[in-house]
Amino acid sequence: MKKYLAPSILAANFGNLAEDINEVNNSEADFIHVDVMDGCFVPNISFGFPVMELLQKIANKPLDVHLMIVEPEKFVIEFARLGAHFITVHYETCPHLHRLIELIKSNGVKAGVTVNPHTPVQVLEEIIPYVDMTLIMSVNPGFGGQKFIPTTLDKVAKLKAMRDQLNPGMLIEIDGGVSLQNADQLYAAGVDVLVAGSSVFQNGSIANNIKQFKEAGNKFA
After folding, report:
1. Eight-state DSSP code of residue 30
2. Residue (of 149, 81, 82, 147) closest to 115 by Cα position
3. pTM, rounded to two decimals
4. How many structural domains compose the chain?
5. In DSSP terms, which residues pair with 7 in a beta bridge?
6. Model pLDDT for residues 114-151, shown as the tens digit of each residue
7. What is the tens place of the pLDDT at every residue in 158-202?
8. Residues 55-94: pLDDT tens digits?
9. Residues facing residue 171 across a β-bridge
10. 192 is catalytic
11. 2, 31, 152, 190: which has the fewest C-beta neighbours closer than 10 Å?
12. Residues with Cβ < 8 Å from 153, sequence gap 6 or more?
């Protein structure tokens, strides 16, 4: 399966966001990852519709929108209208997850589900057949630049086995502590989409960092 990279704009320079996005536009990146935080489900606030409106105008990569918010069902239609290609919602916030996945898809958007570090992937068995992507958080969500939780690799292996049996076309995405130092290990473990923030935007040339991530992925595609 092809390997993908989704730079997270949470780590971009918001004083010069358009320039950073244009550099991603002209790179080998596959998606642009958009972390939406509400200060309730996670202990931080990021951005919402105004930034999505800007991205809709200037981004030429598909927008991978990760809703770290309570009651995401109130907002998915607007994120779909603003150009989201993927919308992932947290298992932990959705008592009616199947209904919400169907709502996302009915608006022409690919639907995903996310699990926090403490949540076992086994709880996703009944929803995996219906989603396009599952996102495993490899840090506690809310802040960029955190250290990767090593036991996440065991979760990837378990999720890959479930995916191969229940929905072979589903993408496995990972977010948190992703770097050029562990990219090979993550791709080899079965991850399809790496979300990288600081290691793309805050470590030298954006385009060169993306190129190195893509070279790592091409070894396992």
Report:
1. -
2. 149
3. 0.96
4. 1
5. 196
6. 999 999 999 999 999 999 999 999 998 766 667 899 99
7. 999 999 999 999 999 999 999 999 999 999 999 999 999 999 998
8. 999 999 999 999 999 999 999 999 999 999 999 999 999 9
9. 133
10. no
11. 2
12. 185, 186, 189
Domain region containing 196: 4-218
**CB half-sphere exposure, 17, CA atoms < 13 A:** 17
Dihedral, CA atoms, 114, 115, 121, 127, nearest 10 degrees?
-40
**Bridge-partner residues for 153, per DSSP?**
none
Give, in order, the Cα–Cα distances in Å from 157 to each of 125, 138, 176. Answer: 14, 13, 17
| Options 20, 30, 132, 175, the catalytic residue | 175
Selecting among 30, 35, 132, 192, the annotated active-site residue is 35
132 among known catalytic residues:
no
Across the beta sheet with 63-68, what order do the strands follow? 4-7, 193-196, 171-175, 133-137, 110-115, 84-90, 63-68, 32-37
Q: And the tokens for 70?
A: 């309570």
Given a contact cutoff of 8 angstroms between Cβ atoms, the answer to whether 132 and 86 are in contact is yes
Q: Is 23 helix (H, G, I), strand (E, B) or coil?
A: helix
CATH code of residue 144: 3.20.20.70
- Measured over the CA atoms of residue 113, residue 117, residue 119 and residue 123, the dihedral's sign is positive
CA angle (140 as vertex; 219, 121 as ends), nearest 5: 65
Residue 46, amino acid: S
Sequence-distant (≥ 6) Cβ neighbours of residue 46 within 8 angstroms? 10, 35, 36, 37
Written as six digits, the tokens of 75 are 């907002």
Query: Which structure tokens are listed for 165?
Result: 């049996």
